[in-house]
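INSTRUCTION: Work out how this chain folds

Fields: amino acid sequence; protein backbone structure tokens

Chain under study, with its fold:
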Amino acid sequence: MIDLHAHVLYGIDDGPRTVHDTLGVIRQAASDGTRSIVAVAHANDGHFNVIPEQYERAFEIACREIASAGLNVQLIPAMEVRLGPQLAEGYRQGRFLAMGGTGYFCVELPPNDFPAYTLDTLFELSLEGLRILLIHPERNRGLRRRPELMERLLNMEILGVASGGSLLGQFGPEVQAATWQLIEGGLIQAVATDGHSIAKRPLRLSAYEPVLSRRYGDPVAESMLQGVPSHVLAGRPVELIPHPRIGWRRFFGAR
């Protein structure tokens, strides 16, 4: 499996605090069958404003320690960048890093609103040749309360990645309901752990497979945990396909 969003670099944001903690979460992921992790770190969010030089040092140390420990897990570099009106300018200035060599750029919406400049900013980033990976959009209150915005994002070919905990109701029933709505509408096409530590949001992607399979079927579960993430790591576009709930497909006679 491929985890498109996890905090595994120690000492730079609210993820692992020590190298021992980093190796612990990587072992957890490896034992669960994960072989590639997009190792994000917060930038531009007012709390953890990681800069590229700081990120690159932490990434190099983590890769070296993982190799020394003999763990068969590949890390892919990326920043999780909080939305702001000057995001495209910051990218042009080299203040924010895209995901490895994929051309994808991880954007996190603020939790409580959907700013008026959101769509313009995302469009400006696309003009830089970037594909947008929208991180846990279901946790944005503005999007939850204005579902018509999903259509605007779909028209811009924005790809959403849900936090696995949202599927399980760990962020409350409103967020959980929004997750189903965004999957069934086509915006969310993948699920990641958003892992932070062994106990807090653990790096266990397999926990989400039965939930997705029961609701959407095995092929959709495989696509969201492996197929779509592999397209992202290869730098390929992802088709934004709605995933109707199995019961609804049967009810309406869909094949």
